[in-house]
Design goal:
Layout lengths: L18 E3 L3 E4 L5 E5 L2 E4 L9 H5 L12 H9 L9 H11 L5 E5 L9 H4 L5 E6 L8 E3 L11 E7 L8 H11 E12 L16 H7 L3 E10 L1 H14 L5 H15 L6 H4 L5 H4 L2 E8 L6 H5 L8
Parallel strand pairs: 4-7, 5-6, 5-8, 6-7, 8-9
Antiparallel strand pairs: 1-2, 2-3, 3-4, 9-11, 10-11
Length: 312
């Protein structure tokens, strides 16, 4: 059977060798591991290196997202004002879309749902998108763990990893995998939080400063980086977290979440005034990074010279 275009250049997440593809399963040519295909979506998890197991996806269990949200819960969530806004992502994706050649192949890690500001990427018919995640969702093309991306070296023109690296056990390994699957001229776009409360329950592990972000992507040539969500958003998250921490009762917590969100959501609009200020590099809610694949790395002494925050 011919392999669909979307799944060409796949490799085994365990032994890194090639596959035989069918509509029901994928069989590794080397280690002979068999991976299921559920509703047309390959489940390519190396269980030895992952928090997730294949049977969870075969049984369509919830992982990082609640796939069975009730109508009442959806309505209540819709009543809660959004206390965070990303003022930078949309313009960043416009620049990336302009720089990428036609028919670029783009991997979206954590792409089961639409990313913030990515409309220009989704709507460009000349881009070939592969959306991966550790959860089923409306845009999921493949289930895989970023610690073992199941594609051959040099497959993609661009990798987008937006609001994902805080949720992985080893972000350095994931970034190394991103570097591996990019073509020699490939681009990476990342967003990762700094001043944010915990989210996605038990699947939240790491935060990075701006310099920490630069060191994480040290094997890429930096094109641009900086705050994408500012101190106003960070403050709104902290205030809401402060009040909801007083109770463990789920009903009261939800009531507090709604009430406090109504009070603090205007804080996010101050980010329009502060996002490009020096102080935002010390207090931002999240940072972005745009880079191109490189074999040259900076030393740690060179990285700290790139500090842009408030001087003593």
């Amino acid at each position: 059977m011919n392999t669909p275009e979307k799944y060409k250049n796949l490799q085994c997440p365990i032994c890194k060798n090639g596959f035989k593809y069918s509509q029901l399963a994928i069989l590794c040519n080397s280690c002979h591991e068999k991976f299921p295909v559920i509703d047309g979506i390959p489940i390519l998890i190396n269980e030895k290196n992952s928090l997730f197991n294949i049977n969870s996806f075969v049984n369509k269990e919830d992982t990082t997202f609640d796939l069975k949200v009730s109508g009442i819960k959806s309505f209540l969530l819709g009543c809660v004002p959004n206390i965070g806004t990303n003022f930078i992502a949309k313009e960043n994706f416009k620049l990336i879309a302009k720089d990428l050649p036609s028919f670029s192949k783009i991997l979206i890690i954590g792409g089961s749902i639409s990313g913030k500001g990515m409309e220009v990427i989704y709507e460009n018919e000349k881009f070939f998108l592969v959306s991966s995640d550790v959860s089923f969702g409306p845009k999921t093309d493949i289930i895989c763990d970023g610690h073992d991306i199941p594609f051959e070296q040099g497959t993609f023109d661009c990798v987008i990893i937006q609001a994902v690296l805080e949720h992985v056990i080893d972000p350095y390994r994931v970034v190394s995998e991103v570097h591996r699957v990019l073509k020699s001229t490939g681009l990476v776009y990342s967003e990762i939080p700094f001043m944010q409360s915990g989210h996605m329950r038990e699947y939240d592990f790491t935060r990075f400063t701006h310099l920490g972000t630069l060191r994480l992507f040290n094997n890429f040539q930096r094109i641009d980086s900086g705050p994408c969500c500012g101190s106003g958003m960070a403050l709104a998250w902290s205030v809401r977290g402060f009040f909801t921490s007083f109770t463990e009762n789920i009903v009261i917590r939800r009531m507090l979440t709604l009430g406090v969100s109504l009070l603090v959501f205007p804080l996010k609009y101050f980010d329009r005034l502060t996002i490009n200020k020096t102080g935002s590099f010390d207090t931002a809610s999240a940072f972005y990074f745009i880079g191109s694949k490189s074999d040259v790395t900076k030393t740690d002494k060179e990285i700290i010279k790139l500090y842009k925050g408030m001087q003593r």
